[in-house]
Write a structure and sequence with these properties.
The structure is a homotetramer.
Chain A lengths: L14 E5 L12 H13 L4 E3 L12 H15 L6 E3 L5 H14 L3 E4 L9 H14 L4 E5 L1 H4 L5 H10 L3 E6 L4 H10 L6 E3 L5 H6 L4 E4 L2 H16 L3 H20 L2 H11 L16 H15 L1
Parallel strand pairs in A: 1-2, 1-8, 3-4, 4-5, 5-6, 6-7, 7-8
Chain lengths: 302, 302, 302, 302
């Protein structure tokens, strides 16, 4: 097991990693000023890391230039207050390597790489893909498993093999929603592999199972509640954590089921931080759903 | 919501419910003497309830007379030290009603009913099935969801509707292994529905999520470890609970993946409590697997 | 490959195998007089074999005595006009062996055996189960794969191994609805394994793929249409077969999706052959669905 | 239902649509000379349409310029001998519209559009996506359902609604491998919707079910066998079609299971038409698999 975290003095990473939306102007281009506001907003909520250009950030729908603009702006706006983990995923290995190099050049503290696929990839193809990326950069890689969006599912065995054998693959984000994957990662690595949970409705149990952190867009909308949950977990008070989690669970479930870009953007608009709508073919949240979201948020704060 | 637990002064039920195997003699008939020993063994491990004739007990493979013999012997051997929840499930409603009446007559404190199916059942068919059973008895019914063995999956919505609207359906055992079902039961019932976890590798997280108890055959083999885990949970020390759980997880996973009757019987043989082999077409644990089990158990106690 | 069909001069079996419901009297007991009528009705429709006590026949919901009564009556009513294939499946190997012996004693030409399960069975457990049955009887066994009702799925590899290596396992009924299983059976056996299709909406394609026959309850309701389809297939006129199949497909799909016992019994009532209702927990067809069925049948005959 | 096929005098399309690989030079760029050879090769095999830039053509892994080069070269090489259907799919609606316009400008006779997704799309999002494309062009659109690669599954109901209500969506390619989808398309459209099969091991049954054609890369390697199968189908000789199909099925299954770009390129190399290797992260066919492919092809031609 490699030492993790020489690059940034806030590593090894633990806690809540806040995921950004990519705000768009009315004409459809990224609104970098609003993005800076959102970075500040997330840090004020107490997140322990900032992650642009993930699933929430509509990374897959941006041009390469837009992607770089968002990465650059996020790094600058964060100003090393917390680590920045930049999502960098493309269908070809060559494009992914290029994006990861760019992220490093722009000052990212780590990259998060999802093996998005058209043709299903074999374990060996995935391994070599991550190896090529690792060889090209000098910052940590978070291997991100999200079969629902990537179209390919990485087993705990493969994930552990990559962390063990590929220099810069140092941590895992598990978004499959299957707690047994986390158990398997623990047992395979004898507890040495730092894994993060990326499934909102599993936050409580992932912490119970030993997750190093929670990768989530929820702090955009309910930062205080998320911070309280983390603090209860940190103080090993799981009865309190359960109460806090179950109270916020309707919001966590809703923003996931409605699609994170659409629901988080709708919630930000409700909070006076309008960030535009998702890019087509994605639709914005419908009016009924927006009312439901307003109702759920209002319930939570009352 | 009905009051739960007038029947037996140890209700409302909480804690570890220990599931019995049905021991067989060499010639294949139930060994009721050995069964009495196993009841005592489980109670000595500190279980808070005893459950004969579940999946572990090969209930589905017994004749009606054998089933009644096992139920009677278990109730007598338990002697009201803890509640006895008798598994009672048949393909027809008429047979299930008969079995539940018999269980009540024999002194069971509750029955656990699984909607085993040949043709898939609709929600309405399942509801009426449980209603007919409830109308016939005066003891609590634990609605048992285990799609892998029953062939039918009961949604949290259906389970909550049955607990709310059917007199004697007062608790749920969830064995689907999906923690989100437990969250849904909590949210639907506003926290009022007592649910039990029946999936061994989910024990830690089910407690985190608020399960009233753990239905498990593990105390047959690792009673002390299971009791320690429960005590850590009861004292809200989830860091300790996690360590204890992850240490026993290899055993919990192994006895599930190998088939509970075969693996638990193999483990009991290793412990000097031979209980015969499962009934055909089920095979006993193979030699290699038996060695693995011995190794896992020995690791745990060292 | 063994020679198939010494037992009955109508073997090797080909064509349409008609599946019987088990008619019940108002008080719930099997109506053996009506059963005799239904046997005659099916044979008049031109079926090439008669199959009582399958899924359609609610075999799983009958007592052992009822099961034997239905088997005996069917064999007697058929009077060797066509072969009789008796469904004989139980959870334990011992019970299944007993049933198959009884079927043979009662004059069945073959038995159809489904590996119904509670605990999932391994391939080896299934193989030994069929082997024990084969050792006990001297009539052919149709290995029946229907994962939706049995709870266990037999791969083409396992099915072929059983036909090759177990004396009396001589044919396969595939009801998984996956045409690729039929291709695999063909390729594995070099075209020697006779397979029958048990999925109504796949009838056309199974014939295209070389199925020896179609196991179906449809002739109870639309005997002429089924016979016409078979005749078109036999004369290698697949354009005509397609037209006939697509015309009857709405009925075939409806009787499957509504549950065969409920829908076929509702249809028989519409035809003046009332056969009672399915046994609880199964419900009879609702009024709206019964009207839909009447409409579909009327469309077809017009 | 709109009239289909004013654009090209070979419409309405029927028969075998041959899918091209995108050949790469050693240095990794598209080899447009080899591509021209492959177009001629396919047309010599008797295909009724040519399709570049599908799944086989690694369309998802090309830059926009490479994609346009391949489209242009294919149209020119085909020279209106048969229709050209250009694959044009991107994550955003805007990019897909641009690609479809380009395809039309380059002389494509139709476009094939797959709703590739990152976030799952709702039916409404998909409908609007196709509507926007249709509004931008004047050539037919083949709606392509392939959930395994697209990450989103279009129901027969949605497909039929699009063909009915969107001007230029005039045909469907179904690659889910589920024959019941084709039946549903037939029943919903009263037989008016022209559907094509895109699942090689389903070719025989799709023709039985009334498919207008077969979209396949197989003619690259076994053009004569594919043509013979089509001819048997056209002459309504399904016994002959079955024999031909089952003989070529091992090849059809192998090239699908090994990944079409890798296996077809390996086969072309065996035939003296080397076309390079797939683009990373996709790996070329391994040596053992290449030997198996050689063996299967040699068996077929002997």
């Amino acid at each position: 097991m490699k030492y993790i975290g020489l690059h940034f003095n806030l590593f090894p990473l633990r806690g809540v990693i806040g995921y950004l939306v990519t705000p768009f102007r009315v004409e459809g281009t990224p609104d970098l000023g609003r993005l800076t506001d959102l970075v500040n907003h997330l840090i004020e909520q107490g997140v322990h890391g900032i992650a642009p250009l993930g699933s929430t950030g509509e990374s897959a729908y941006l041009s390469r230039k837009e992607w770089a603009d968002v990465a650059r702006t996020t790094v600058e706006a964060t100003g090393q207050r917390v680590p920045v983990i930049v999502g960098a995923s493309a269908l070809t290995t060559a494009d992914t390597v290029d994006m990861c190099r760019t992220a490093e050049d722009l000052g990212a503290d780590a990259v998060m790489v999802l093996p998005i696929s058209y043709w299903k990839l074999t374990d060996d193809e995935i391994f070599q893909h991550y190896h090529a990326i690792s060889d090209a950069i000098d910052i940590p890689i978070m291997a991100y498993n999200n079969p629902a969006t990537a179209g390919v599912d990485m087993s705990p065995e493969l994930l552990w093999r990559m962390v063990r054998d590929i220099e810069n693959v140092t941590m895992v984000k598990e978004s499959s929603g299957d707690i047994q994957r986390m158990h398997a990662l623990h047992l395979l690595s004898n507890g040495k592999l730092p894994f993060f949970n990326g499934c909102n409705p599993l936050a409580l149990e992932a912490f119970a199972a030993g997750a190093h952190g929670w990768c989530t867009a929820a702090p955009n909308l309910i930062g205080k509640e998320v911070a309280n949950l983390w603090n209860a977990v940190e103080s090993n008070d799981f009865r309190k954590a359960r109460d806090l989690f179950l109270k916020q669970l309707p919001v966590l479930s809703f923003i996931l089921s409605g699609g994170l870009p659409a629901t988080v953007k709708a919630g930000l608009a409700l909070m006076g931080k309008p960030s535009g709508v998702p890019r087509l073919p994605l639709h914005p949240l419908g009016e009924d759903d927006a009312r439901t979201l307003a109702h759920l948020l209002s319930n939570l704060s009352s």
